[in-house]
Amino acid sequence: MQAKVRNQKLSGSVMVPGSKSHTIRAVMIAAMANGKSIIQNPLTSADCKSALSVAQAFGAECEMQKDAWIISGTNGKLKLPDNVIDCGNSGTTTYIACSMAATIKGSTIITGDAQIRRRPIKTLIESLDQTDAEAFIARPGIDAPPVVITGPMKAGDIYLEGKISPQVSGVLLSAAMLEGTTTVHVKYPMEVSYVKMTLDWMEGQGVRVEHDDAFMKYVVHGPQTYQPVNRAIPSDWSGVAFPLIGAVMTKSEMTIEGVDFNDVQGDKEIVDILIRMGADITKDEVNGRILIKGGKRLHGVHVDCKNIPDTLPALSVIGAYADGEMTLTGLEVVRLKETDRVAVMQNELRKMGVQIDSEEDKVIIKGGKGFVGAEVESHDDHRVAMALMMAGLVAKGETVVNEIECVGVSFPNFLEVMNNVGADIEAL
């Protein structure tokens, strides 16, 4: 499917759906919990449905209602799956499922779609091998799923590289079910805000984790019991980024509703980054709203993306819109997402007339020259697709974005939401 995007301003109010990252953590904890969980406002996207199917494979009973998911947990006694676990396009689900599988006696095969079968997993497999579990990659010489995990793992010291934060989250979540004390050592803590999110969910459901200030050492005394989840999923700050930059770049007056400024998700930093660039944005923290008056001239700034890698596509577009030079650093994790987002955004924005260059750990954008409508590729990456559509709102001429089905991974009703506030995005 393609999207044809025409230059347009926005007006009205937007409600962004629930957070993918929060929903997946809620589902996995509910699967391990003692009792019935009610997850309100879950994101009903492809990735979150993959997490739900994994929970079912591990023995949880799941029911999807209109505004909530009901999950009856296993009380820490996960079932050996009857079949191969397919995690779809969800990297977070894949990494967490590997650690959950390691707690079970027997062998579990874990795989995913074509993108997942390219995502690095060797460091996690090596770490699980330290715990008396046996883990190996099914295709020798290829650092990616499918993988085979044979448990059960034992409590003790686990050493993780830490550059891919869901690998850390998965080990922590599963450590609570082990008999004894597990100490997790992280060499290179990255995407720390997402680990903080995991800790927040664990502690909220009754599991205590000790950690140092640098997030390099964690201690989990087990076994501990997860209490059932009865909680609403907050709006997704990663998804907020796209209507936000769309409104900022166009002569718009728009409000984004239902955001939680106390959320630990690091991507909320994009609001302050845009304000620093000169955007006319008001944060209504009491009522959970962002008020935007768009069309102001912005100036480029430096942003370290180490802990907010999902913002890079949106930041690349806003950097091209802004006057002067925008630099983005801390890119190691960004290159390990659904695509190498550094390379992909560089290639596609160049088609739209943007002067953008990259080094190993730096993107340099010389902005302020505008966008030219062009035919661009999403590379089957949901955040790339949404970022390019927002660039199309201010481009001279029509922009066509190919393979937009991928937005269903995190923002299934993106086109509807944007068109309801005046965007001219036509699905072809």
UniProtKB/TrEMBL annotation:
PROSITE patterns, alphabetized: EPSP_SYNTHASE_2
Cellular component per GO, a single term: cytoplasm
Tell me the lineage of the source organism.
Answer: Bacteria, Bacillati, Bacillota, Clostridia, Peptostreptococcales
Q: What EC number(s) has UniProt assigned to this enzyme?
A: 2.5.1.19
Question: Coiled-coil regions in this chain?
Answer: none
Question: What does this protein do, in the record's words?
Answer: Catalyzes the transfer of the enolpyruvyl moiety of phosphoenolpyruvate (PEP) to the 5-hydroxyl of shikimate-3-phosphate (S3P) to produce enolpyruvyl shikimate-3-phosphate and inorganic phosphate.
What pathway annotation does it carry? Metabolic intermediate biosynthesis; chorismate biosynthesis; chorismate from D-erythrose 4-phosphate and phosphoenolpyruvate: step 6/7
Protein name listed in UniProt: 3-phosphoshikimate 1-carboxyvinyltransferase
Q: GO biological process: any one?
A: chorismate biosynthetic process
Q: Where in the cell is it found?
A: Cytoplasm
- Which residues take part in binding 3-phosphoshikimate? K20, S21, R25, S165, Q167, D310, K337
Q: Which reaction does it catalyse?
A: 3-phosphoshikimate + phosphoenolpyruvate = 5-O-(1-carboxyvinyl)-3-phosphoshikimate + phosphate
What are the positions of the active site? D310
The UniProt entry's sequence similarity note says: Belongs to the EPSP synthase family.
